[in-house]
Write a structure and sequence with these properties.
Number of strands: 5
Largest sheet: 5 strands, antiparallel
Strand content: 5-15%
Shape: elongated
Structural class: alpha+beta
Helix content: 40-55%
Distance between the termini: 50 Å
Order of helices and strands: HEEEEEHHHHHHH
Length: 238
């Protein structure tokens, strides 16, 4: 049996959390980040260390379609594992005993709290259903991901209508502060997809965005494994 890491959190992550995540298809992406990827939906679980040097840690989740092209792991479909009565859960990991105990609690929370969220949004249709109630917030990124996902899934007409709302939200934010380059980029992405739909070329554009996102986020190997397990994965019905 291999010796455990001298770092308590690393040791607990490897011996307690990693096997539990693997049972549900999650694989280590980086040292403290795991991913489950069923093209085009990527689901991440990230371990965040306290910036105050306390050795405490939190668990964050991020769920996103890989379109438009993604430059980093981040999404507005995201959150943090709760602990007790707090929605902002933090666990101690000062020594191996506390780290192991904390990670066992995290695994319980993974099953009771996170798996229902992950499983409900694992496919493109599930992602659309999960995003729909979030659109009432008016969040431009949620509106964009919801609309783009609908178009990817083949509901082009309705998706384009939803995309108008997302584009307007980005345009409004840009009008309020012209230095918001991310808003200008989002408007251009909406326009580009609208043009692709008009030309019947949306499938090619989605494929380009997904492949580039897989490269940027280093998901190429996960994509190959996914296609082996699901030969039709990535074939958007558009």
């Amino acid at each position: 049996m291999a010796a455990r890491s001298k770092d308590p959190l690393t040791a607990a992550t490897t011996s307690v959390l990693k096997p539990a995540l693997a049972e549900h298809g999650f694989r280590r992406h980086t040292g403290r980040c795991f991913v489950r990827y069923q093209r085009p939906v990527a689901q991440f679980l990230d371990i965040q260390l306290s910036s105050w040097g306390s050795k405490d840690f939190a668990i964050n989740y991020f769920i996103l379609p890989l379109f438009p092209q993604r430059a980093f792991i981040g999404s507005n479909f995201a959150g943090r594992f709760p602990r007790g009565k707090s929605g902002d859960g933090w666990w101690p990991a000062k020594d191996h005993a506390r780290a192991d105990s904390s990670m066992e609690e995290v695994v319980e929370k993974f099953h009771s709290f996170a798996i229902p969220i992950y499983d409900a949004s694992a496919t493109i249709d599930g992602l659309i259903r999960s995003l729909k109630p979030m659109t009432v917030s008016g969040n431009s990124h949620i509106l964009r991901d919801y609309a783009f996902s609908m178009i990817y899934a083949g509901d082009t007409s309705k998706g384009l209508g939803e995309m108008d709302g997302a584009r307007n939200a980005f345009q409004k934010a840009l009008g309020e502060m012209s230095s918001r380059d991310w808003c200008a980029a989002a408007v251009r992405e909406c326009d580009r997809l609208a043009e692709a739909c008009a030309a019947g070329e949306q499938a090619a554009l989605f494929e380009q965005w997904i492949e580039r996102s897989e490269g940027t986020l280093k998901l190429q190997e996960k994509a190959k494994a996914n296609k082996t397990l699901h030969p039709t994965a990535g074939n958007a019905p558009v």
